[in-house]
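Now for one record:
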Amino acid sequence: MRHVLGLLALVLVLMAPVSGARADERHRTLVLVSGTAGGIEKLSNDEVLFLFMDAPVVKGGVRLQPVLNETDPLLREVFLQKVMFMSWRHYQRRLVSQAFSHGWARPETVLNLSALVHKLKTESGTVTYMWKKTAEEQNVKIVQVLWSGYVN
């Protein structure tokens, strides 16, 4: 019996780093970003919602321009569920409704990461969301954390 318990303990010790590494890979942090030169300050939760529904949001005298980051399907899903609290289909319907009701243009959508980063760095007031790791790799300004947790 002692040998079995010893062997079980050894197996658990050997597996701990592997399971910890897998958990780290699943942990993500979603951030709101702007270009490095942008002086955009932290937004309230309501301002983030209004911004991505393309309602006018002005910070520091600059009207913010939201861009939908379509470079990663998981990123989009997490953003919509955890920040906007709606599905892609419902979000699209709301954007169309807002466009008809208020005359607001729909946020621009960017599919390519390098084009997105270029837009952030060259167009003042442009903001989007991305994984924190990507933001750090692309050297863009992290305005604030929108959500942090584990994804499947």
Notes: Strands lie at 27-34, 58-59, 62-63, 65-69, 108-110, 126-131, 141-150. Residues 2-26 form the longest helix (25 residues). Helices lie at 2-26, 45-52, 73-84, 88-102, 113-122, 132-138. The first strand starts at residue 27 and ends at 34.
